[in-house]
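W.,

You were right to be curious about this one. When I first looked at the sequence I had no strong expectations either way, so I just let the prediction run and decided to look at it fresh. Below is the sequence, 287 residues in total, followed by the output.
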Amino acid sequence: MTQDILECIHNKMNTFSKGQRRIAAYILESYDKAAFLTASVLGKTVQVSESTVVRFAAQLGYDGYPEMQKALQELVLHHLTAVQRMEVSETRIAQEDVISTVLLADAERIRKTAEELDVAQFQSAVETLLSSKRVFVLGVRSSASLASFLCYYLRYLFDDVRQLMLSSESEAFEALVRITPQDVLLGISFPRYCSATVRAMELAHSRGARTIALTDCASSPIAQNADCLLLAGSGMVSLVDSMVAPMSVINALLAAVASRRKSETTQTLQKFEEIWDSYHVYEKNGE
């Protein structure tokens, strides 16, 4: 549905039954919590049956409750503050069952990402990396760890890989001032989207450089200036952003590029192995 779900609920309030109005009132008042409740739990919370919740979703125009829940989650995940994340997590995760709840949710994100990832876009990203003179990578805040991991392995594959490390937003523009159409910028950003990454993608695109975006949805602000769009499901675990699915996509991207540059990569790794051995970088078995 293109219409904001909260606006839709508000406009349809007079058409709801007594039980449905209780659901509507709760969602309008606490949509940040309602978005993460199952139909059964939402029904118990407002003291209506699960079937009433399902009918409520249908009356709003959704195929089922999961579709309505997804719309609510997309609405709130982009706007929740850190404090609100903590409050929402208290209603989602029982302390005695944190491990299984989080691990199963992460496994589901990877499964959905594998099903929904556009293979043509993925292959295009591989070709773009292989044909670029320089590779710039930008990911800040919670995405910085993804950018660091990606750059660490890209440096085994390419001669000129640059991770943009920003202490201020102006540094993104300064670092990209000499970017050319022969270069590529790979931007990584997930809710809440960082403005520095958005503007860097805009600048790189305006200068004719090729751009790859790793983000959560096609409506992401960094997707608007992406030549290749890689989508991976992210999520919220208390204060923490779940990045297992984006990391899995990065692993796949690295594996695909390495496979295409097998000979060059093997030669590079042989040189690294000699250096590592000379300087005792790694412990040897049996020593």
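Here's what jumped out at me. The first strand starts at residue 135 and ends at 139. And, maybe more interesting for your project: The beta strands are 135-139, 161-163, 184-188, 210-215, 228-231, 235-237, 240-242.

Coffee later to discuss?

I.
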